[in-house]
Each structure stands twice: as structure tokens, then as C-alpha cells.
Amino acid sequence: MLGFKNQLVIALIAIAVCSLVMVAGQQPAAGPYTAAQAAAGRTLYQANCSGCHQQNLSGQGDAAQLAGSEFIGAWGTRTTRELLSFMQLTMPPSRPGGLSAEEYASIAAFILQQNGAPAGNQPLTANPEVRISSVATGQRGGGGAQQAADDEGGGLRGAPPRQPAILVAGEVKNFVPVTDAMLRNPEPGDWLMIRRDYHASNFSPLNQITQNNVKDLCL
After folding, report:
1. At 110, which CATH number?
2. Which of 43, 46, 69, 83 lies 20 to 30 Å (CA to CA) from residue 102?
């Protein structure tokens, strides 16, 4: 009986050791972009995006935060294809669609990297679709030595610190939360985002003001 117990203990120890070896040998899941692609995206971002979204991706005014909890809150449930499509349709604001598909993909790869998504062996493309929250956490990382150098002082070099929001206690009467469906198909009288919709139409369907009566407008 004692021999059987010893054999059982040895077997359990062997199983535990094998499990530890297997876990230690596992590598993090490959990300949807390559490190080289994100490095190219860093340069493209600085040249085309940082003027509005800031060098540290913190955003300002109507330019959204592109790294952190706000980005994950807005884009976590969406896919990399949706992110690429939105970028191509709306960015840069002065010339939407002005970059190549590869350049947009590189910038998106850099954004994913800055939100903690690991690099992989395949470059980011519109296919296959990847749910952003499945690879990105909103925690900055993945940039190696360049990331460490940029993070000194909080964010990419030269970026001003993000100012804290001003909070006022109170209740907004008749408040209606903005839903994803409303953003995708806004009511005629609504302008819920920069350039009005995901297609960057910059157009309001309202028709009360026309070429004939615009001259009559006054304060």
C-alpha cells in the first residue's frame, strides 16, 4: 500500500512539473501586426496625426484619445477592419484617404502597439478582422527601447501632459445617451461627431436654410 502511495505521489509531481514546463514554454499570442509595421507607423503618425491627436496619443478638443481607456472604451468592441475603414474615410481631416492602404495599416499598427497589443509575424490588413479588445488592453507597451525612451516624462517626447477634466456635480435634464446605432445613422438634426458621421460626409440633411434665405439670417 505504501509503495502505491509513493508511486501516486511521484506521478502527481511529474504531472505538475510537466504542466509548469508547458506553461513556461508558451509564448504570448501573436498580435495582428508586425514590429516593423508599427515602427513605420510611428513615423507616419508623427507626420500626419500628432498635430491633432498629440505626440503621446492623448488627444485634444475634437481629436480623440488614441491610447488608453478612452480608446478601448470607444473601439474595444469594434474590429481592426472598422478602425482602418474609419481612418481611411476621415483622416487626415484636411485630406481624407490621402495616404496609401499600407500607410493607414502601419498607423493602425502603431496605435494598437501603444494600447498594449503584442506584435506578431503577419502585417496588419483589413482581413482577417480582429476584435480590438481581444489583443489590446489600453495599457501602453510593446515599443521596446524606443518606447522606453519616449515614455520618459510621460508620453512621446515633447508632448504636453494631458490636462485633467473639470467635473461639476449635477444632473443633465432630458439626457439621452449616445449609442453606437446613433453614431452610425444620426438623426437629421444631430451632429454627434467630427465630420458628422463615419463616412465623413460633412453634410447636414436639414433644409430650412437655403441659398434664398441665408441672407436674412441675423443674431
Report:
1. 1.10.760.10
2. 69
